[in-house]
Specification:
Length: about 140
């Protein structure tokens, strides 16, 4: 039941706009994946989806996946090699904590948009948009199985 409630309340247009705004200043790529499955290991599922979505194939290895599994009420945020070399575990833990707080208050859209904005700032700092940059991956939310 929570899964459908989550989807009904999520402002998908706002999330997609946040992705486009964040990517306007960086060569980095941000994707949001919503799983319809129950998962006990969101990090492993996120890694599998990261590969399936072709996110490891970006030119600068600077993709980030926000994986959400509302049925099991968990999520993961993972970055590719290029990002992980520039920010440490403390960065990821801080971001996850902020999103967790928003989710606990049922402010899912706000938490996701905040994370995207924060990620966009980090990506713009380390991977500024290049003159020949193109949007390598779609900005839409991916609805999984």
């Amino acid at each position: 039941m929570y899964h459908w409630w989550f989807l009904l309340r999520l402002n998908q247009k706002r999330v997609v706009k946040a992705i486009a705004a964040a990517e306007a200043h960086t060569s980095g790529e941000i994707r949001v994946f919503i799983s319809h499955k129950h998962t006990t290991n969101p990090m492993a599922e996120a890694q599998a989806q990261f590969e399936q979505l072709g996110m490891a194939a970006t030119r600068e290895r600077n993709g980030v996946l926000f994986f959400i599994a509302p049925r099991s009420r968990n999520f993961a945020i993972i970055g590719d090699k290029g990002i992980n070399e520039r920010c440490g575990d403390a960065y990821w833990q801080s971001l996850v904590q902020a999103v967790s707080e928003a989710f606990k208050k049922h402010r899912h859209t706000k938490g996701i948009v905040h994370a995207i904005h924060t990620l966009g700032t980090l990506l713009a700092e380390h991977f500024p948009r290049l003159h020949d940059d193109s949007d390598e991956l779609p900005n839409d939310i991916v609805m999984g199985k």
